[in-house]
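Recall that a protein's primary structure is simply its ordered list of amino acids. Everything else, from secondary elements to tertiary packing, is in principle encoded there. The following example makes that idea concrete.
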Amino acid sequence: MKTGEKASPGKQGPPVDWHAVRQRLEKARGAIEHAWTPSSAETLRVLMARAQALGRVPDPAETPGEHLDVVEFVLAHERYAVETRHVREVAPLENLTPLPCTPAFVLGIVNLRGEILSVIDIKKFFELPEQGLTDLNRIIVLQSEGMLFGILADAIAGVRRIPAAAIQPSLPTLTGIREAYLLGVTPGRLVILDAERLLTDESMIVQEQVAG
């Protein structure tokens, strides 16, 4: 454009509102900063997690080998468990046949895939409150070299691992026959039965209890 010439009015754009531009930039910067700033609750959670991780002392009970793997089950609204090394399998309670001339705690026998298996009602054996059979009942099959039978559970809670150091020798409230077959109790009142003691108890041999 030469000196003295005027610009064509059609080629000029609208005037720039620099105040509005600065406001939009400030809003955008604030939104970005807010998006990357954690809330006070999130900050506290992260700091607590870091403190717990840094202050955590290794638990001696976590040493490999110093734990018990157990099957947890329910009896009369109480939680019991037996070590998995004594458990062959867990099966539904089906086609139960009562046996005459046997102790009251012998519920009967079942045919488990062609194998005749006696079933012990552990509630009667431990003199616990009885309740009727339901669809939740399961048979926990215990096995050793010379013994095989099933114990009746009201329901199966699952398999879990318990640190050996967390198992207490006994509870004062557990006396008599329950204490004799007790391996230990956890702080959460999970009663761990001595399955090995049950498997070596001669009173569990049903054949010797049946009258000739």
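The chain has a mean pLDDT of 77. The chain has five helices and ten strands.
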